[in-house]
Amino acid sequence: MNSPVHIFSTRGSIVLAEKISEYYGLPLGNIKFLDFSDGEYQPCLEESVRGSRVFIIGSTFPPADNLMEMLLMIDAAKRASAKKITAVIPYYGLARQDRKDKPRVPIGAKLVANLIMAAGATRLMTMDLHADQIQGFFEIPVDHLFASTIFIDYIHSLKLDDLTIASPDMGGAKRARSYASYLTAEVVICYKERKKANNVDYMTLIGDVSDRNVILIDDMIDTAGTLTKAADIIMDAGAKSVRAMATHPVFSGGAYDRIRDSKLEEVIVTDSIPLKNTSISKIKVLTCAPLFGEVMKLVHNQDSIAKKFVI
Fold first, then answer.
1. pLDDT of residue 307
2. Catalytic: which of 32, 78, 174, 192?
3. Mind listing the pLDDT tens digit for each residue in 228-247?
């Protein structure tokens, strides 16, 4: 007999959590936050979770309060004698800090993994990690889901001829090749060089896009500098159209303005992070709620989730 299920959400991801819980078929659990005048806060689970499976939903995008809320809620569930605690983190923050690429820097992704495990999580569920090896930072099961299960259907609905899949950088070449192979499409890569974060110094296109409909594939869009520069190069090289698909809409700095003024016909993202600006008509949001809701059901029923991996 399966344990009872309770679903809770951090405040930053409440809209997505409501969609996930609706798909799952359970209402979100009651939780209250006690806010102190100095900015400190204390979450309180307003229902018993003793012996239950608890899902806590929350992307850990900045500010750090989103991560801290997740950790405090995990700790609260553990101290309330929950049997199993799954941290459902659609966007795993600090994932770009997955290694030491220069002296005297932290490995932030590993630190976050340690914090989640120390807080008491018994499982992690996430989507399109910036670096696959982050799964190995955990000593608990990790369900690493792919947004390709969402994007593939949308790509088919576009019914584009002469389709080419592009990666905006060398790091995304494997992802682009996977999409291209599945869709029987061509693939091109944008090679870039940068001397500091969020600033592209040089970019060139590897491959032919003449008279092709191009879709740029990436795991996240931050300032959109790389993406829009890649779109310019692709269109200048003779492409018929260029779109972008990225799992996580970080959208910092001047991202919204860059996308609005770019040659991109459309930018498709998921709702792993809520948009700050919903007025840009080029941005289309596809929900990841059914994906997480379905996998949560499969995990709770101890069924295989292999069928959820399209690419």
1. 81
2. 192
3. 999 999 999 999 999 999 99
pTM: predicted TM-score of the whole model, two decimal places: 0.95
DSSP secondary structure, 17-71, as one string: HHHHHHHHT-PPPPEEEEE-TTS-EEEEE-S--TT-EEEEE---PSSTHHHHHHH
Q: CA-CA distances (angstroms) from residue 147 to 24, 29, 69, 287, 290? A: 18, 26, 25, 10, 11
Cα gap 147→221, rounded to integer Å = 14
Estimate the crossing angle of helix 148-158 against helix 173-183, to 10 degrees.
50
Query: Among this protein's residues, is 240 annotated catalytic?
Result: no
What is the percent of the chain where pLDDT is above 90? 89
Place of tokens 């949001």: 285
Number of residues written out for the chain: 311
Average pLDDT over residues 245-274: 97
Q: Are strands 241-249 and 213-221 parallel, antiparallel or unpaired?
A: parallel
> Which pairing describes strands 186-193 and 202-206: parallel, antiparallel, or unpaired?
antiparallel
